[in-house]
Amino acid sequence: MSGGGLVPVGTAELQQWLARLALPSPADGDADRIDRLRVLEQVKNAICAAQAAETLTFNTSQRDAQVAAGYAP
Prior knowledge:
single chain; mainly alpha; 0% strand
């Protein structure tokens, strides 16, 4: 694992983040709102990348299971 001690985010933690993101914005003025919009865009991009990687891993797992079960593509 890379990232200097970073730990992957599990499903329960993602659900907690989702709930917290639904709360009203704590922004203090428009400058803060612009900063939040920038960071939210970065979060959205990171989530899209994580979803693509998870989809690829799931697809590979399913194909491997099918091959192991004798259902070669």
